[in-house]
Amino acid sequence: MSKIIPGKYGTKREVITQSASRLFKEKGFNATSMRDLAEAIGVEAPSLYNHIGSKSEILQEICFRIANIFTTHINEVENNKESFIKKVESIIRFHIKMMIEEYESVYLSDHEWKHLPEPYLSNFKNQRKNYRKRFADIVQKGIEQKEIKNINPYIVVLTILSSIGGIESWQRSSKTIEAKELEEDMVKILIQGIQKSQI
Fold first, then answer.
1. Residue 1: CATH number of its domain
2. pLDDT tens, 118-145?
3. Pairwise CA distance, residues 84 & 39, whole Å
4. What is the pTM assigned to this prediction?
5. DSSP label at 197?
């Protein structure tokens, strides 16, 4: 078998991570072995260990990379000068784009994070909890500013994230609906559902 070749798909480690994302998504983290991963990449299993220590290490890298991307974005949203309803829209659009462009990695960070070993598991759970709290705080401020209907912010965040999670069905479909149409219609439905009417 050949070596892991970096190139247009990134560094050797990125090639491994991308292949692992696909396999973990298809087979599940527990059902995927390092041998499976080596075969998918086209190398002998022992050579894989020259680049990565374990499949848990790969899962950590995927989950925390995605978490950091979302954290960076919400930092930017919190600091911008837009209205709170626009901040919520920005977060919705970002989640949709991530579900479209980074689907496998986002799917894993949403569904397979429970397989992270400690202390990474607790760290990741805290990041998820903190992110949702920050999102809910933005919604609460929108309610206070009369931009958003007086709905429990936690339920707003839960509903928005659950709805966006439904893009999994679109990813598995024949995609007769274009990504842009999907984004615009989802944003319209979600924002109209929470935006306070301006009289």
1. 1.10.10.60
2. 999 999 999 999 999 999 999 999 999 9
3. 48
4. 0.91
5. P
